């Protein structure tokens, strides 16, 4: 007891000597933890004493209960493992469970692999969305972390991505493109990686392969003995309209306005049972409103209009002009969604500009949309 008292006194003196709040909290937590451990030990020893006295009486009952519990456990036959994905910004959500071969799905589902923006937010990876039909996997955009997020969503065999659709060639939407090219190759891809995107995609692809030429050479000619033809990439530059129609999936590219970019696209995915429209980075666009009419899920980027102001940097006075030319405010999106009338509006690539989620949603309602709206988090499934 004397030794414990000395520890407490020493800790309290140390606490008084520290001026910063973090040190104070850390020491107080230690003291509380020590006290809690002592109380638990006392309760444990007290429990042992009670059990030793009562055991002669309780032994027959304990035996019967043990048999019953064991029987119940043995009889449990779970259908499959329960997998949960950690969502840093909120409570755990049920993870996407990929279909097994032969399992039928007649409508497409969405997995939000990355919901972030250029801001390096550890809770939101770069823009990337998986569109799933049965065992088929399609991607829209390839932001930072795309292959890791595919694995986190339950697709460790990322070599099986059927096609990727890039909305535009901004860095935050393509930083994961080389990762997708090389990681799928290393993980066993056997067919060309099919990638749709705006003009400039072929040049970007060629430059990426050239940038990693030493890596490619060593992996092929060194001890790894990878196969060069399996690295093949099939970049397909598009200008809008129906660009993919295979096995019950139709993909339409929708030209959108994104500041000075000459070519930027949203995409609409249609299957027999469901439709998904993704805006990409886009200012309000009549072409997107027309293409998205009747869609089940509208996934759209957004910023908080009331928070927009010039930035304190050289050229920052033009920031509001850029945002209005390149992106869609919450109020503007509310107006668009009121016309489109999706069954679900999903917000991603959110630029809060210092605002709150409540402000974001208030603007959507102020624009006139009264339907269901969700602010997406990484690995959410819709």
Q: How would you characterize the overall build of this protein?
A:
The protein has 382 residues and is an alpha/beta fold. Helix content is 39%, strand content 21%. The protein is built from 11 helices and 15 strands. The protein has helices at residues 2-17, 21-75, 146-152, 171-174, 177-186, 201-211, 213-221, 286-292, 319-326, 330-340, 357-366, and strands spanning 84-85, 93-94, 109-114, 128-133, 136-140, 161-165, 193-197, 233-237, 241-246, 249-255, 265-271, 274-278, 297-303, 344-351, 373-375. Strands 9-10-11-12-13-14-15 form a 7-stranded mixed sheet. It has a 6-stranded mixed sheet with strand order 3-4-5-6-7-8. The termini are far apart. Mean pLDDT is 82; it is low at 1-28 and 48-94.
The low-pLDDT segments are 1-28, 48-94
In whole angstroms, the N-to-C terminal distance is 58 Å
The topology string of helices and strands comes to HHEEEEEHEHHEHHEEEEEHEHHEHE
Instruction: Please describe the biggest sheet, giving its number of strands, its sense, and whether it closes into a barrel.
Output: 7 strands, mixed
Q: Structural class of the secondary elements?
A: alpha/beta
State the shape. globular
Alpha-carbon Rg, integer: 28 Å
Arithmetic mean pLDDT = 82
**How many beta strands in the DSSP annotation?**
15
Strand content: 15-25%
Q: Strands of the largest sheet, in order across it?
A: 9-10-11-12-13-14-15
The total of helices stands at 11
Please estimate the helix content.
25-40%
């Amino acid at each position: 007891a004397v030794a414990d008292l000395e520890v407490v006194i020493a800790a309290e003196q140390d606490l008084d000597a520290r001026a910063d709040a973090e040190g104070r909290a850390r020491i107080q937590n230690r003291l509380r933890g020590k006290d809690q451990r002592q109380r638990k030990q006392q309760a444990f020893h007290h429990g042992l004493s009670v059990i030793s006295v009562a055991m002669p009486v309780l032994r027959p009952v304990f035996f019967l209960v043990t048999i019953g519990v064991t029987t119940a456990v043995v009889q449990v036959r779970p259908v499959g493992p329960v997998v949960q994905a950690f969502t840093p910004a909120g409570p755990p959500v049920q993870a996407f469970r990929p279909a097994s071969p032969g399992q039928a799905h007649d409508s497409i589902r969405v997995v939000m692999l990355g919901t972030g923006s250029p801001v390096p937010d550890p809770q939101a990876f770069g823009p990337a969305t998986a569109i799933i039909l049965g065992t088929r996997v399609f991607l829209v955009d390839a932001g930072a972390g795309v292959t890791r997020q595919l694995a986190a969503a339950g697709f460790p065999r990322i070599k099986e991505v059927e096609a990727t659709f890039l909305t535009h060639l901004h860095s935050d939407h393509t930083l994961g493109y080389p990762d997708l090219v090389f990681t799928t190759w290393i993980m066993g891809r056997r067919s060309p990686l099919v990638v749709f995107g705006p003009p400039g995609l072929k040049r970007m692809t060629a430059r990426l392969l050239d940038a990693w030429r030493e890596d490619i050479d060593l992996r092929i000619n060194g001890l790894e003995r990878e196969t060069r033809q399996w690295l093949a990439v099939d970049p397909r530059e598009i200008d809008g309209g129906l660009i993919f129609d295979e096995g019950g999936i139709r993909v339409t590219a929708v030209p959108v306005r994104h500041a000075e970019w000459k070519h930027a696209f949203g995409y609409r995915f249609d299957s027999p049972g469901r439709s998904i429209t993704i805006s990409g980075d886009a200012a309000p666009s009549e072409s997107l409103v027309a293409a998205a009419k009747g869609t089940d899920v509208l996934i759209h980027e957004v910023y908080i209009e009331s928070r927009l102001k010039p930035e304190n940097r050289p050229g920052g006075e033009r920031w509001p002009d850029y945002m209005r030319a390149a992106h869609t405010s919450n109020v503007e999106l509310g107006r668009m969604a009121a016309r489109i009338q999706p069954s679900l509006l999903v917000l991603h690539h959110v630029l809060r500009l210092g605002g709150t989620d409540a402000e974001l949603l208030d603007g959507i309602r102020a624009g006139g949309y009264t339907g269901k709206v969700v602010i997406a988090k990484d690995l959410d499934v819709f």
